[in-house]
UniProtKB/TrEMBL annotation, chain B:
Taxonomic path: Bacteria, Pseudomonadati, Bacteroidota, Cytophagia, Cytophagales
Highest taxon above the source species: Bacteria
Pfam family, one: SCO1-SenC
Organism: Pontibacter ruber
Name under which the protein is recorded: SCO family protein
Family: Belongs to the SCO1/2 family.
Length: 130, 220
């Protein structure tokens, strides 16, 4: 009985850990700049919360995470111009989990990503890794 | 991304701040004076008297985002909160800035409280870069000075504030530094050290500022 409960707890933990990978990775790699609630930092760092950019530039998101982003961009009508470093060590599974976390949190309810879609996006910017 | 050093340092600072906090008498609601202290013997009216001398932030001279000279005189009769950062910092700085904004918003109409952020990357963070940074944060220059200056002067004053700051190629962004916010009184004594990346520590800072203001007020 006790053992059974223990196994069950471990199993649920395992499951939630997997599910929370996106959240964990976000906290580790993104929250410093975009903040825990995705609000960004005034006119310096763009928000992820309710950001039109996530929808209008859906096809670029995986590459932005992997290789960073700089130069002027407009998010929700505000122009930003700062530097986001890339996270080159993240693999496609991790990037998929992060993307799904931001697409479905901070008040966002955008379409989720599959790992295949992320892989296809990353193919476009693979040359940057060399 | 290796922010372990930063973490450890912050922990050490927080621990020492906590120790100091414990040794103080809570009910009196005064803030301790932190840092080194020396007891010196002085001759007063022909008698030797022991006196405690507290560490004081020495004079300094930096340049802010409006190209204005910022010196100890700029803070005369005021209290200030200071930190160390750099504009391209990929780790804790944006969080620190978002927490410092809480202090800014709360005291923006009180001329007694000023904020001072030092860049530890003066080579990149020129006056123009700091100006753009401050403008994008939408903060006013007489309330929140972003300063640059001689690298050595910045690193050595960091030590006086009990803050680590140095170049390190191993670190993300190329610098090691702590996320501490330092509360300094009008005699340039350090009165509080807070982890500027932790909202609850900044809550504490926001509670300590009125205590310090009150103390200055009573002395007048």
């Amino acid at each position: 009985m006790v053992a059974g409960a223990a196994v069950l707890t471990t199993l649920t933990q395992c499951f939630t850990n997997k599910q929370n990978e996106g959240e964990r990775l976000y906290a580790q790699h993104c929250a410093n700049c975009h903040m825990d609630d995705g609000s960004g930092l005034r006119n310096l760092i763009p928000p992820l919360a309710k950001a039109d950019y996530l929808v209008s530039h859906r096809d670029d998101l995986a590459c932005i995470i992997q290789h960073g982003q700089q130069g002027e961009i407009v998010v929700n009508g505000v122009t930003y111009n700062h530097v986001m470093p890339g996270a080159e060590h993240l693999n496609k599974g991790q990037i998929t989990n992060i993307l799904n976390y931001i697409q479905t949190n901070f008040g966002n309810s955008n379409e989720r990503f599959t790992i295949q879609e992320v892989e296809k996006q990353l193919d476009k910017c693979r040359h940057l890794l060399e | 991304m290796n922010s372990n050093n930063i973490r450890q340092f912050i922990l050490a600072l927080a621990a020492s701040a906590a120790l100091y906090a414990c040794s103080g008498n809570e009910s009196e609601a005064t803030l301790p004076i932190l840092g080194h202290r020396d007891v010196v013997e002085q001759e007063v009216n022909g008698k030797m008297v022991a006196d405690t001398v507290y560490q004081q932030i020495p004079d300094f001279s930096f340049t802010d985002q409006d190209s204005q000279q910022v010196t100890a005189k700029t803070f005369e009769g005021k209290i200030y909160v200071t930190d160390f950062f750099f504009t391209t910092c990929p780790t804790i700085c944006p969080k620190m800035k978002s927490q410092m904004l809480r202090v800014y918003e709360q005291y923006k109409d009180n001329p007694q409280v000023v904020l001072l952020s030092h860049t530890i990357d003066p080579k990149h963070d020129t006056v123009a870069v700091l100006k753009e940074y401050a403008e994008r944060l939408n903060v006013s220059s007489d309330k929140w000075h972003f300063v640059t200056g001689e690298k050595d002067s910045i690193y050595s004053i960091a030590q006086k504030y009990m803050v680590t700051a140095m170049e390190d190629e191993q670190e993300a962004g190329g610098f090691v530094h702590s996320g501490a916010f330092i509360l300094v009184d009008q005699n340039r004594h350090i009165r509080g050290v807070y982890d500027g990346t932790q909202p609850d520590q900044v809550d504490k800072l926001l509670k300590d500022i009125p205590v310090l203001l009150n103390e200055q007020h009573q002395k007048k």
